[in-house]
Amino acid sequence: MHLIDSDGKDQDEAEICLALDPPPLGLMRGYQGDDGAIVPLAGEVYRTGDVAMRDADGHFTYVGRADDLFKSSDYRISPFELESALIEHPAVVEAAIVPSPDPRRLAVPKAFVALAQGHAPGRATALSIFLHLRAHLAPFKRVRRLEFADLPKTISGKIRRVELRAAERARRAAGERGALEFWEEDFSELK
Question: Which superfamily, per CATH, for 2-65?
Fold first, then answer.
């Protein structure tokens, strides 16, 4: 296993790649073409689409999907870590983090949250979640915007972040805000 950046260089934080010579046990031989024939994997490595970090001792830590990572104030943000902190809150049953365009920070983390039974979407619940995240995340990783919503899913039950990202970009471009959307700066209690 290697951590290789987009330039093909081995790094301490980059995309997880598997050497194809010899091919790893259990890795597919290739992709099925339109004609049904197997198109073999090409290149020296198979890029998994996942990002990991390697520490000084050589241990790996999963960061997240390469296509889900985004920059906020020049920090790389992994939705996986923020979502893990969110679902530790008793009111949160599911959450998805996407970048929300921001004129000062390029993007800020925004949470789309599905609530557990017995919890109502509103200012008090949003404040409770923001306070919880402040206690569990570094300041540069904090969720700055939060919206209570039903999360779009694939047939297999995975959250469709691509839909959430597109909707958030469109909403910011139009200068709109959702009825159940709360921003960190709306709360004087957090200043």
Answer: Luciferase; Domain 3 (2.30.38.10)
